[in-house]
C-alpha cells in the first residue's frame, strides 16, 4: 500500500514539475533541508576601465589585466531545518542576498559545500524571470516554466495566480508598463502557486501597497504552518521578528550572530541605534 502511495505522489510531481531538481523533498519536518559548510564566495573586482574587446585581449595577453579579490561571504556555516523561518539581517553589502543566491543555486561557492533538498521558489530580485516586453499572461507561463512548473500545472493554477495578484484588468498589457508593486504582485503570485519546500524572499515585499504586503505575509504564514521553510531578508526588523523564529546577522560577509529571531534582531537594532563614532580631527598645523 505504501509503495502505491509513493508511486502516486511521484506521478503527481511529474504533472507539476518538469525538472527532477524541483521534485518534492522527502525531508521530514524538523530534519535538515539546507546545509552550508564553510561556504566562501569570491568575486573579482576590476578597477580598470576596459571598454572594448581589443583592449581587453591586449591586457590579457600582456598580463596587464589585474583584478582585486573581493570576499562576499567567508566560511559560512548554516543548518536549517524543514519548517523553520530564518531572517537575515545586515547593512547593505553585508552578504545577505549573496547567501540567498547560493541557496538558490544561482551562485557556486569558491569553497565549501552546499546541500539543498526539495523545491525552491526564489524571489530575489524585482523583475527576475519577468520579460518586460511580454504581457502579464505570457509572463505567467514564462516565469512558471523558469521555476520548473509544467505547462499543464500552470494552466490549472492560472486563475488562482491572477486572482491573488489582482491583475485581472492588466493581463494583456506589457509588463514594461507595470509599476514596481504590480511586478511584485505578479512574481509573488507565480512563485507561490504551489507550496515550495523552500521560499526565499529578498526584500521584494519592500515595494507595493500595505494591503498586498499583509496579504503576502498571511500567505507566507499559511505556508509555514504547512511545513514550508522560509528564508527572509528585510531591513524591517519588526517584520523579521513577526515572520521568523531564527535569524542570522551578517557584516561584510562574516557572521556576527546566529540565534532566535528576537535576540538577534534586538542586538542588531541596538548596534544600528548606537551613535556613530566621532571622527578624529587632525591636529592644526603650527
Explain what the structure shows.
It is a single chain. By secondary structure, the protein is α/β, with parallel strands linked by helices. Helices cover 37% and strands 23% of the residues. The protein is built from nine helices and nine strands. The strands form two sheets. Strands 5-6-7-3-8-9 form a six-stranded mixed β-sheet, with helices on both faces. α7 links the parallel β6 (198-202) and β7 (229-233). Residues 1-11 have low confidence and may be disordered.
Write down the overall mean pLDDT. Answer: 82
Work out the radius of gyration: 22 Å
SSE topology string: HEHEEHEEHHHEHEHEEH
**Cα shape:** globular
Structural class: alpha/beta
- Spatial arrangement of strands, main beta sheet: 5-6-7-3-8-9
Strand content: 15-25%
Largest sheet: 6 strands, mixed
- Assembly status: single chain
Distance between the termini: 92 Å
Low-confidence stretches: 1-11
**Helix fraction by DSSP (H/I, runs of at least 4):** 25-40%
Per DSSP, the total helix count is 9
Number of strands: 9
Structural key phrases:
single chain, 286 residues, 6-stranded mixed beta sheet, 9 helices
Q: What does this entry show, briefly?
A:
With 286 residues, the protein is of the alpha/beta class.
List the helices and strands and how they pair.
Elements: H1 2-16, E1 32-45, H2 53-61, E2 68-81, E3 85-89, H3 96-103, E4 111-116, E5 120-123, H4 136-146, H5 151-165, H6 180-191, E6 198-202, H7 210-225, E7 229-233, H8 237-243, E8 246-251, E9 254-260, H9 261-273
Helix pairs in contact: 4-5, 4-6, 5-6, 8-9
Amino acid at each position: 500500500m505504501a509503495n502505491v502511495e509513493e508511486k502516486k505522489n511521484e506521478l503527481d510531481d511529474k504533472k507539476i514539475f518538469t525538472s527532477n531538481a524541483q521534485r518534492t523533498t522527502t525531508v521530514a519536518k524538523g530534519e535538515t533541508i539546507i546545509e552550508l559548510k564553510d561556504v566562501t564566495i569570491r568575486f573579482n573586482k576590476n578597477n580598470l576601465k576596459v571598454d572594448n574587446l581589443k583592449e581587453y585581449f591586449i591586457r590579457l595577453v600582456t598580463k596587464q589585466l589585474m583584478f582585486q579579490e573581493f570576499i562576499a561571504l567567508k566560511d559560512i556555516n548554516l543548518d536549517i531545518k524543514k519548517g523553520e523561518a530564518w531572517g537575515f539581517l545586515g547593512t547593505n553589502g553585508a552578504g545577505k542576498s549573496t547567501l540567498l543566491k547560493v541557496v538558490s543555486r544561482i551562485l557556486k561557492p569558491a569553497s565549501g559545500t552546499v546541500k539543498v533538498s526539495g523545491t525552491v521558489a526564489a524571489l530575489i530580485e524585482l523583475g527576475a524571470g519577468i520579460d518586460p516586453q511580454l504581457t502579464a499572461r505570457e509572463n505567467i507561463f514564462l516565469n512558471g516554466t523558469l521555476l520548473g512548473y509544467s505547462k499543464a500545472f500552470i494552466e490549472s493554477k492560472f486563475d488562482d495566480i491572477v486572482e491573488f495578484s489582482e491583475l485581472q484588468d492588466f493581463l494583456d498589457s506589457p509588463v514594461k508598463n507595470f509599476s514596481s508593486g504590480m511586478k511584485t504582485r505578479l512574481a509573488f503570485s507565480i512563485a507561490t502557486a504551489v507550496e515550495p519546500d523552500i521560499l526565499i524572499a529578498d526584500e521584494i515585499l519592500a515595494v507595493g501597497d500595505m494591503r498586498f504586503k499583509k496579504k503576502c505575509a498571511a500567505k507566507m504564514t499559511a505556508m509555514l504552518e504547512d511545513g514550508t521553510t522560509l528564508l527572509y531578508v528585510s531591513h524591517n526588523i519588526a517584520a523579521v521578528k513577526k515572520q521568523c523564529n531564527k535569524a542570522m546577522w551578517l557584516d561584510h560577509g562574516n557572521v556576527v550572530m546566529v540565534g532566535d529571531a528576537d535576540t538577534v534582531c534586538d542586538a542588531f537594532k541596538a548596534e544600528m541605534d548606537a551613535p556613530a563614532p566621532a571622527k578624529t580631527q587632525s591636529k592644526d598645523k603650527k
